[in-house]
Each structure stands twice: as C-alpha cells, then as structure tokens.
Amino acid sequence: MTATIDVTRPSRRRVGLIALPVRRLLGVLLSLVLTFLGLTIVTFVIGRVIPIDPVLAIVGEHASASTYDAVRLEIGLDLPIPVQYWRYLTKVLSGDFGNSVITSQPVLVDLLNVFPATIELSFLALVIGVALGIPCGVVGAAQRGRWPDHVIRMASLFGYSMPVFWLGLVGLLVFYAKLGWVEGPGRIDVGYDDIVPTVTGMITVDSVLSGDWEVFWNALSHLALPATILGYISLAYVARMTRSFMLGQLQQEYVLAARAKGLSETRVIWIHALGNIWVQLITVVALTFGNLLQGAVLTETVFAWPGLGLYMKNSLFNADLNAVLGGTTLIGAVYICLNFLSDLLYPLVDPRARSRS
Amino acid sequence: MTRHLAWLAMAGVVAAPLALWQAPAQAATPRDTVVMAKKIDDIITLDPGEAYELSGEEIVTNVYDRLIRFEAEDLTKMVGGVAASWTISDDSKTFTFKLRPGQKFQDTGSTLTAEDAAFSLQRVILMDKTPAFLISQLGWTKDNVKDLVKALDPLTLQFTTPNKYAPSLVLNLMSSVVGSVVEKKVALQHEEKGDFGNGWLKTHTAASGPFKLISWKPNESVTLEANPTYRLGAPAVKRVIVRHIPEAASQALLLQKGDIDIARDLNPDQLKTLAGDKAIKVETFAGSDTYYAGMNLAYEPFKNPKVRDAMRYLIDYDGMVNSFLKGNFFVHQAFLPKGFMGAMNENEYKLDVAKAKLLLAEAGYPNGFEVRLDTWNSSPMAEIAQSMQQTMGMAGIKVNIVPAEQKQVLTIYRARKHQMAALSWGPDYLDPHTNADTFSFNPDNSDGAARKPLAWRNSWDIPELTKETEAAAQEPDSAKRETMYLDLQKKVMETGPFLIMFQPTFQVAERTNVKGMIAGITSDLTYYRKLTK
User: In 10 A of CB B272, how many CB atoms?
Assistant: First the structure.
C-alpha cells in the first residue's frame, strides 16, 4: 500500500511540474482566442449598427454615386454581415488587420506608431501613481480619522472627481505658460523632432539608447505634466484602495498580537499589515495600468499626445472599422497579458499562493 | 513615528512630481521654420486625385503646382500655373494650354511636360475617387478620357469637353485640386494593381510646387520644406511644420509661449484672452461655407410654400450674429457665398413673428406644428438650433432638436430621412456653378436617383430651375451669366426648402513677427509660400 504511494507521488509531481507552465500557456492562449473572438464580434456588430455610413466617412459628402458605389464594393459592405466578418477574421488570422481609411496605412503600422507614445505616458503615470498612492493609502489607514487621513482623502477625492480635461489645462497654464517649468503640448520640441532613430518608439527610451541627453530631457519635460496628471488620478484610486485594504488588515487579530508582543507600530503597519495586502494591490495596480494603456482620450487631446486614445477616438468618429477592431484587439491583449503577469506575481508576494500552485 | 511618516509621505506627494520638472524650457521655434498649429486629423490622403478634405487639400495646394490657379499675389485673378497661356475654340469645347518651358519636378529633377499634365487629369477620371466628379461633369468618362485629354507636344496640352459649359466654369475647374500636375513616371513606377500610383501617392508626393513634403505623420504633423527649384523661386522660409493640436486652448498657450508661430483654430474665448498680448496679432479671413437648415418637402407642412416662407421669418439672424456668433459669422441668405462671382449680398429676411404667424394661418397651420430638427452636437450648430427652437416656438412651431455626431447627421440627411436638418455646405471650386449645382439643381427626384444634390435631399422637385441652372453653367457671356445666378439665388431664397443663415469668417492668430499668411475663402487658396518671420 505504502509502496504504491511512494512510487506514484514523485512521478505525479514531475508531470505537474512540466505540465503547469504548458497548461498555463495554453490557458492564456485559449483566453486570448476567446477574448479576441468576443471582442471582434461585438465591435464588428456595433460598427455595423452605428448610424454612421462608413463609405461617407471615406468619400465625403460631395462624391458622385459611382465613386460611392466603388468604395462600398471595395470595403465589402455589399456582403451580408456574417460574410464580412468571416472575411475580416480570415485576413486577421494571416496577420493582416487591414488598412486604416484615415491614415491609409496598415492598422498594425499605425498601432506600432501610437502605442509606444501611450506606453511611455502610462508607465510614468503608473510609477507616480503607485509610488505615491500606496504610502498615502497606508498612512491614511494608520492615521484613520486624523488630519493626515483627511488631507489624503480630500486630495484623492479631488483627483478622482476633477475632470482630467480641466486639470490638464490648468496644469498647462500654471506649469507651462506661467512658470515655464515644463514643455507644452506635444511629445517633443519641433527642433528635436526626428533626431534620434526610432527603436522602441518611446522617445525617452530611444534618446537614452542613442545617448542623446538633450533630446531625453526635452522629451521628459514634455512627458512630465501629462504623466503627473494621469499619475495623480491613478494615485487617487490606488490610495483609496490601499486605505480600505489596510483598514481591513488592521482590524485582524494578528495585528493585535503583534502589537501586544511589543513590535513597533512602523513594523506592524509597514511590514505585517502591508505585507498581507500585496496580492490585492497587484490586482489594483494591474487594473490601473490597463486603464492607462487604453489611452486617455481627454489627456491626449489637451496635450496633443498622439497616443492610442486619440487614435481610437478618431477611428470611431470616422467609422474606420479596421482601426477600431485592431485597437480593440490590442487593448484586449493588453488586459490578458496584465492578468497573466499578475497571476505570475502572486506567488512571489504571497506564500499561500505558492503552496497552492 | 507615524506622524513623521505622515509628514514624509505628504512631502513625497508634493516633491516627487516637481522633481521631474527641472529641464529648462526652450521656447521659440527655429528661425527658418514656421510652426503652425491646426487640427489636421481630417487628412486621409495627399494624392491630388483623391484628396478632398480641407487640411489635405491645403497641403496639396502648397506642394503641387496646378495647370492654372489663383496665385497668392492676387487671389481674385486667374493666372497660368504650369501653363503659360491658353486658347479656347469658338464652340467653347476645345481648350489648348501652352506650358512654361523648363519646369522641374522636385525629387527627380525631370522636366515637367504636357504628358504629365494630361496623365494627371486622366488619372482623376480613371481612378474615380471623390474629386472625380469635378471634371466628370464635363462629359469625361473612363472610356473617352484618354482620347479627349492629350499632349500634342511636350509643351502643349489639349482637351475637349463633350458637354458644353461656360469657358469660365471649365477654367475654374482646372484651377481646383484636380488640376494639380503629378509626375507621370514616378506615379507609374509605384503603380499597384492598376491604381495609377494612388496607394503610394496617398503618403508621398511627385510634385513641382513651392514646398516638398518631408513627412506626414497622421494625427501628429506635416512637415514641408522649401523647394529651391520652384518656378516662382523658393519660399522665404525653409520649413513649415503643421502640428496637429486638437485642443484650441492648448493652441493658444503654445502661441503665447512662442512654441508655435501661428494658431489656426482658436475660438472667440481664446481670441479675447489673446487680445491684450502684444506679441500676438489676429487676422480675419472670410470663409466660404453656407450654414443653413434644410426642410424636407416629404414632411407634410413643408410642402406648402407659405410655411417655408414663414420659417424664414422665424430665425433671429441678427440676434445670433450679435451674440454667440459674434465675430465668427455674418448673415448671408443667398446660396452663393460673398466673394463668389454673382453672389447676391442683400438679405431679405429678418425675425418677424407676426408676419410668420399670418403666413402660417394662411397655410392652414394657425397653431403651428411639430417638427424634428437633426443637427450636430457641437458648436456653433447646437446653439443655432436652440435659437431656432426658441424663435420658432413663438409661432407655435414645436421644434424637437436631435443632436448627433456630424457624420451621423449627414447619413440621415443623404438618405432624406430628416424633417428638418441644420448643417453646412462648402463649395467645391471657385465657380458659382458649384453651389447652384446642388441648391437649385435636381434632375431626378426619385429615390434611386444617381445624383443626390441638396435639392434632392430635401425632396424639392424643380424641373424649371434645373434647366435654368444648366443654362447658367453654359452661358459663355460672363456678365449675362452673373445675372442668371442672381436670379437663381433670389428664387431659391424665396421659394426653396433652405433656411440659409450665415457665412463664417475665421481668425488666424500669429506671433507679430510672422507675416505673409495667405488664406483665401477655400483651402485651394491657402498659401504658405509668402510666409516670413
């Protein structure tokens, strides 16, 4: 009896060790495929029922009937919707997302142009939001009901409820126009445009790669204000969530035990209590990042930031279906990747997640 | 301890973002470069055989030379562009152009010939993109255009028009975007699947105009560089960069800081705040759009001409231009914009509720009626619609405003599914026929009509006026032609399904050291080559 157990255990474990990453990868791929199908079907149908004629978006209101008909045929609008969808799907599977009618370029090329701008902005915003949001939340919870808590709560409420559009314009007025601390709208000064070779598409990274610090500072100075404003809004969310998670932990008995044992308050709060909310925080941070990566239309508009948000808005308003579908798929893929990434991170911060897997 | 931590965290909140803000701001644009902020997200192509969006056409105007054109030096006078002179046959059907010798294309340095000019016109018809209708109305088709448009020798272009039109109209058409001369050899080198180089020319150029296209980054910028071989000499500035700054308030801030030289899309609020800034001046140019509302005759009350007339007395034209439209629009009730040949500049209608009530009573609607008004969800149409709703309400007409995205309103309007729709119309070329062709022309009022002019969209069946419009387009005597258009405008104004209200003006704000911005009433007349700073 015992012998059989001894024999089967190691072999089962070995299978598990090999199969786990594969299974996970398969799971990710499956969710990617399902998400993609769901996304494209929904977007496709919405694209066909919105009351904008996509042909008009291309030819304009003055075109003749023959031009109109030719374009209608060209983009396949004469076919039934399921056939149109099938045609689109088979093209996409071969890596062809089609051309955008607005930019005349393949959607994939467009996305590769606009997405780095958004990543650059989102990443800095996330760093600001998380680096400040978590400490603020912890302090708020530890000082619950006292003035630091009130100040932080008011500040987050402000960040949460002020229209980002307004914040952006006021920020520009104060820090760009009046004080001159930062550069204005746009990613870089015209004088520095096209100096560093494009590698990643993120100007700050590319300028570091080519060692051009002047361009780097200029790009960073353009980036500072929009990133801070987006960061502030993320901060508001992260701080609020951290505060409520911490409040939950601080009422637990182990905190009481730690305090009774004579541990310093700093240790109790920053090591024990905070240590127990990392899993939840990772989810919050991943969601925040996902939100930021979708592109912030209003921020991008105010700061003339040629990112994903502005691109998607333009595409939607012009019924540029290929671009909308391509962008939606990208955003879907971003969320799946972030999900996967946070799944990978859980065991690192929580031993319970390790033992479970 | 926690107290200190709280302080630390608070200090962090303030200090961290500020720490990033230390790079010195380097204002002012390069000396040899003019930077202009403009909304350019409407550009979808830079091929002159396809471009029909305002910003795209403006770029094409500055990159390509045209057969003939209204030059920056005098926007009212038609002169030769690529052509030096032209003659017209007695039957007004054959046009012969003599080209200037020794003109060069920008990138290849090849000499521009009549072969290029003929090819450029032919491909417009053969590709059949949006601007094709401009010259297909001359009677050119995919089958006959190669025979009718020919190069007789390297410097002589000749074409024949099957349909007879007034010579002034044909010449005005040739001065539009389709008259741009594309280098044949280059276009054909990049031809794919018989597209005459269209795919490549959407984002590249093969031109001989004052500026070379360096780059077009969609939703970001267009960069142009002076062409040293341009026939009138290189432009004064080396580079012109048009930056896409979608938000008007951001444009204003950039201009004040000197990070741009010209702002094109400021609204009255921003212009007011800039008024006190000595470093900035504002120039006003007239636009050519017609802001109007169409009344669909398929909707019962509008079938009665008296009702249509009553509607015209129920708009507070002056009230609007003196309040929220102040400085950006003036009242203009005829379908030809002020500045066009034959435009009627007298306005016949004013807000007169009593008179409108009388007309409505005579028409059998003493208590008014209910009507849906489709219009844009954006300024200024949203405000115009509200004003109309209020004044029409005084005569018992209950207007239900349905605001929507511009393209959505257009989709409804083109399918004539509206009862009343408020929108704008822009002329296609600088000839009165462009607007007459749509406001007073409707050859087939059936649902399946091949052409859908504005008269059709409002179900206005006008065989008589359609004939008169055709006659005006063919009249060779220019003075006589003008009176014909005056007559047409009066008839449309008094009996038509259009409530024509306003013509816009637009303001360009510039740093005071910038000179030479030339903006005519259409994007065909917007020139960068005289710019200096």
Answer: 11
Which residues in chain B show pLDDT less than 70? 1-28
Taking an 8 Å cut-off on Cβ atoms, the answer to whether A172 and B250 are in contact is yes
Q: What is the tally of structural domains in chain B? A: 2
Q: What is the CATH number of the domain that holds B436?
A: 3.10.105.10
Indicate whether B344 belongs to any domain: yes
Report how far residue B439's alpha carbon sits from residue B435's, in angstroms, rounded to the nearest whole number: 6
Residues in A touching B410 (Cβ below 8 Å): 53, 56, 61
d(CA A135, CA A126): 14
Give the domain range for residue B334. 290-505
In a domain, B521, yes or no: no
Structure-token pair, residue B280: 């900035």
The stretches in chain A having pLDDT less than 50 are 1-13, 15, 357
CATH number of the domain that residue B82 is part of: 3.90.76.10
Do B337 and B478 have their domain in common? yes
Range 286-315 of A in CB contact (< 8 A) with B: 301-304, 306, 310-311, 314
CB A317, CB A51: distance < 8 Å: no
pLDDT in tens, A294-317: 878 888 888 989 899 989 888 887
pLDDT tens-digit readout, B431-488: 999 999 999 999 999 998 888 899 999 999 999 999 999 999 999 888 999 999 999 9
Report yes or no on B159 lying in a domain. Answer: yes
Place of tokens 């009627």: B344
Dihedral of CA A15/A16/A19/A23: which sign?
Answer: positive
Rounded distance, CA A53 to CA A61, Å? 11
A4-53 pLDDT, tens digit each: 444 444 444 454 555 666 777 787 788 778 877 888 888 888 877 777 77
